[in-house]
Amino acid sequence: MTQRSALTTTGHKSLSVYSSRLELLGRIESWVSLVWTERYNLYSDVQGAQLELQASTALQALCRPDRYLWLGGSDRLMRILSARLADHRLVLCCKDATSLLAERVHPQTLQGFGVETTLRQLVEAMDWPGLALGQEAGLADTYTGEVKPGSLLSIVEQVCQELDLGFRLRFAPGAKQLLFELYRPKLDPNARYAPHYGNLTGLVYTESITDYKNVCTVVGAEGTVTVGATQAVGAARRELLVDATSRKKEQNQTQAAYLDSLRALGQQELAKHTRLENFRFTPTGPVTVGQVVAARLPGTQIQAAARITSVTLTSQKGETSVTTEIGTPILRRTP
Asked: What is the pLDDT of residues 87-130, one digit of tens each?
């Protein structure tokens, strides 16, 4: 499922204000500043949009909490949460319309369920003005873990972040609806990003073995174990010693169970001493939230693919810029 974005297109941009029932109330053609961020699957405790206007009685009456802002051409709405008047300026703080999902809770624990079917059922039961189900993505993912009772937003975020799924409330102006949809865009092999194409900047590659260890020996009060790359020799072997002499066998604990607990401790410590490798880059060409972008580090065989997790438009004094954030890159080396 493709996702349109108005953020990386050029030309005049305007804002529209909609009621809580998605009825058009008015338009805003100019502002002091605007920050508008569209996200992939993280909406809690983050800003959606902030709009600063020259204060007027008409704008104060128009831009009320629980109404929506729409940036023309976008497929997202921003929900106005607060309006603050100070120094002849009206400042609106907003969150993505997906914040509506935080207004409903699910009191039961969920385990082992088909993701798309279950999440759509939870949202369908919300009974919120204008909220409906969008097109199914045909996702076959099953969530095998456990989701504790909580708000629908926290539940959907947990599942989607663990399974790398995107979700949104897509605005359909003609139908006056917010459509709940899941999606997971794949890498487009025809979309090429590189510095010499002029659509990729800020390439930074980091590799570090400053704190790298791959073998851990844990010395307990009643036994010693070694875990990790125990077969490694020579320069390939990087050892770590953990003093666990304060850890004794619990009552009725077998020696085998005690040694297993030491092994688990050793694996936990090794996880803190991994070889660090990271590749960061900033796509500057036309992009959409959730898109997977690939880049190559010039002069090497290292390639990275990363999902775009957010796109932010910043508009101030007639100047507009767009920035992106990417998730953890997947690195590979070509032959």
From this structure: 899 999 999 999 999 999 999 999 999 999 999 999 999 999 99
Q: Residue 310: enclosing H or E segment and its boundaries?
A: strand 302-316
Confidence at 7, pLDDT banded by 50, 70, 90: low
* CA gap 18, 47 in Å, rounded: 19
Q: Give the C-alpha distances (Å, rounded to integers) separating 325 from 53, 186, 306.
A: 27, 17, 10
CA angle 52, 84, 23 (to 5 degrees): 75
Report the alpha-carbon angle 278-279-281, nearest 5.
145
Give the Å distances, CA to CA, from 254 to 39, 143, 248.
50, 35, 11
pLDDT in tens, 8-30: 555 668 899 999 999 999 999 99
Asked whether 289 and 40 are in contact (CB, 8 A), the reply is yes
For residue 5, count CB atoms less than 10 angstroms from its CB and return exposed for 0-12, middle for 13-18, buried for 19 or more.
buried
Task: Compute the distance between CA of residue 210 and CA of residue 115 in angstroms, rounded to an integer.
Answer: 40
Chain-centroid distance of CA 99 in Å reads: 14
Which string of DSSP letters, residue by residue, matches 108-153? S-EEEEEHHHHHHHHHHTT--TTEEE--------EEEEEE-SEEHH
Mean pLDDT computed over 254-268:
95
pLDDT of residue 5: 56
Strand partners, 200: 283
